[in-house]
Amino acid sequence: MKKPAGASAASLVDGVRAGDARAIARAISALEDHEPGAVELVRELFPHTGKAFLVGLTGAPGTGKSSLANRLAAHYRAQGKRVGVIAVDPTSPFTGGALLGDRIRMQQHATDDGIYIRSMATRGVLGGLARATGDATLVLDAAGKDIILIETVGVGQDEVDIVRLADVTVLLLVAGLGDDVQSFKAGVMEIADVFVINKADRGDTERLEQELKVVLGLSRRADQWEPPVVKTVATEGAGVPELAAAVDAYRAHIEGAGLREQKRSERWQERLLDLIRERALERVLKASVGKDKLAACARQVARGERDPYSVVEELLRVAGVNG
Amino acid sequence: MKKPAGASAASLVDGVRAGDARAIARAISALEDHEPGAVELVRELFPHTGKAFLVGLTGAPGTGKSSLANRLAAHYRAQGKRVGVIAVDPTSPFTGGALLGDRIRMQQHATDDGIYIRSMATRGVLGGLARATGDATLVLDAAGKDIILIETVGVGQDEVDIVRLADVTVLLLVAGLGDDVQSFKAGVMEIADVFVINKADRGDTERLEQELKVVLGLSRRADQWEPPVVKTVATEGAGVPELAAAVDAYRAHIEGAGLREQKRSERWQERLLDLIRERALERVLKASVGKDKLAACARQVARGERDPYSVVEELLRVAGVNG
Q1: Model ipTM?
Q2: Taking CB atoms and an 8 Å limit, are B301 and A122 in contact across chains?
Q3: Residues B190-232 pLDDT 10s
Q4: Domains of chain B, with CATH numbers?
Q5: CB pairs under 8 A between A and B
Q6: What is the pTM (predicted TM-score) of this model?
Q7: Sign of the C-alpha dihedral, residues B16, B19, B20, B22?
Q8: How many CA atoms lie within 13 A of B188 on its CB side?
């Protein structure tokens, strides 16, 4: 609080709260990069959060998530709602696809102050992407966004962790993509609240819808919600109002049943675990290791001189993290 | 060492070293479930590891990883090599697909003692799957397997972390699957050492091969290796000897350049970080929190009463993990 960063942090918080796009971008980057003052920034933004509704959109590559997110954002904007979009892309620096996609999409909404779009690309840090995405939702929430769309490829565990941040999860499927079975298996089936069959002008849509309803009919949810199936053609905007209505219905269901706080508590529990992991690692590295020591330990293990668990026990002991 | 588990741990180590399938299965499960004595087990197995060559096979859903892994395993078996296969499946308990696939595949090799196949399914624990897979490779290595195939869906960060365990990474692509571009973007492009175009009897194979070679021509690797492109039809076994030859060539390259120890050191450094994270979390939860306290903290955050970073700082302080 006494450091010079205090003053600029305060003005950053003011800028975010006023919905200033540059302040929002600056705050998300500061949290993403663990800049000094990041903890203080979250602490100051946090009291102004909790109002935004988080909509997660996920699906296999090629299901049309970006198109649908754009259409849904435009739908909410037409209702006068302020919208944030976080597009999480497991693209590597090798292709730079996230930045390109970001630029293209920003142009579509360039003249609209009520929408803010941010791409997040994987940094190769385990758990880092889910944490960074969670922090970005806090910033957008504090900036007064009514709806935050989180769009991510839904195949791996990392993406499932990201989707878990949302209040409602929408899973996109496409008929005849060759991977509908894989989508069923992707670990997001049981956390999807609304199903979308996109590109519904394709031939096999009816069959996929039937199969999906059979699978859904086999499961019972603890919250008594029966996930609806909505058909869309995102490139033409068809079915988008129906999707928004399905999302609203789910929101009314969980709020009516008093489940929203419970679901948020469950999500925060997971996020607290992630934060503890990352913070504890930072502390151990600072206290006992440093990059050089760690590299030396890794070499010993690679040569077979020491086993990995003994090394880790010693590092934790030196850092004062005792069993 | 004084506890009764000591004796059974010793016989378990003997069983694993003798290549006994039941002992191997028992040891992998013990490590997977963090059973008491797991650390001791790794400590005893570790001196007998370091000989196996780890081959990672990854690719989007529908590229034919399982078929190719089966064919490659059979190829190595025909050369008299002992083979372990770890099939990492992000399938949820919702479908039980991993177990079904496991049974089907075990039948194919049921009469062969020289091969051991193990499926690992996601447990919803962040970072847990990569750690469990790493531990399983140690067991199979100590059991005298010459080649360990690690097969996983390659889209998310979690899968990339799993692939990083391997000595050589093989990336499968298929023409016309509708997601070839996504496969290029999946963050595994730059860690793939050998590219396979599977289902090479499909029409668009030539075009995909050309595109791939253009993309590969744009990058230079620090280890001077130029990743080859091998065409296979896994269902018929076509191209499998050529794939094995490409893997051998890469192995000869890194061993000839003295890079194997360096690469293993880099991998161990990542795994040590993961282990520190998980162990430190366990310690913090044991020392300061417990599930009830954590749930209460999560409720406070969900209600907006406290910010998440302050909560985590306090929990770490109580656990004696200081900044």
Answers
A1: 0.74
A2: no
A3: 778 999 999 999 888 998 898 888 878 777 788 889 999 999 9
A4: 1-48 (no CATH), 50-257 (3.40.50.300), 271-318 (no CATH)
A5: 278
A6: 0.69
A7: positive
A8: 35
